[in-house]
Specification:
Largest sheet: 2 strands, parallel
Strand content: under 5%
Distance between the termini: 42 Å
Radius of gyration: 15 Å
Oligomer: single chain
Structural class: mainly alpha
Length: 83
Amino acid sequence: MCSPAAPNPEEHDVSAIQTKIFASRPAQVARKLSRPLLAGLERGDFDLVAVGRALIANPDWPHRVRNGTPLIPYSLNMLQPLV
């Protein structure tokens, strides 16, 4: 459970933390993966991290993150094969 201390909005999705604290509901964030974001997930500030563009660029995203393999940057051109 997360602490009711005011979170740093630079590091976390404040609305997700507030949802988790005050509504007792699962909370999700959707932002760029970073060490502070992972630290918030480990602390229980939120329950889920949504992955969008990074997953399009890196279909093996879970393995890359787990192994510390660099991610391929997302590019709008990557959507063309999906159209």
